[in-house]
Input
Amino acid sequence: MKYIKVKTYEELSRKAAAVIAAQVISKPNSVLGLATGSSPIGTYENLAKACDNGDLDFSDVTSVNLDEYVGLSTDNDQSYRYFMNKNLFEKINIKMENTNVPNGCAADIEAECKRYDALIEDLGGIDLQLLGIGLDGHIGFNEPCEEFVKGTNRVTLDPSTIEANARFFASIDEVPREAVTMGMQAIMQAKKVLLIANGKNKAEIMEKAFFGPITPKVPASILQLHPDLTVIYSEN
Output
């Protein structure tokens, strides 16, 4: 594990973007696992600038996102498909048909979970997976539980996750209670994993996740077993 502490969110974002850029340059047809939330916004801004300047080419890249809320359509401004379109995909030259986000409005969510796992397998797995971390240690929407869940699955969100995500909605009552999330197998089988986190409120969970025991009650702790893990953390 490479654990990097930086002083500012801006520095975190630059370093994270540099890791992703190096992956795309070294393998132009990379499969990138992408994340949403507030943490990667700066990273995506840096990648968009590099693409706009002609320093990065995403035309052969394929992306698979970690998760999506159950019940939010793709045109809902709080859906993760909408987030990715606005914060990255529409700002770079990636082919939209090569971008993948779980379908939280699928008529059969269990079938959608199986489809998503099959998609990742057909792509040959993920070359680089970008992650954030929740205050309870969740990655994707894999919440603390009694065992690590292997495949893409439907999950009931923890109250702390709902509360943390309420800032993006008009009220906490509007936050979906369920999500579809990539499971631990696809994440752990990614050739490289990059986890980013910022804020002093993340200090405690970062200590537990990366320097404490490996336990499904702190889902991110499983990443200690990954052979190529980079963690970038800023308290500011």
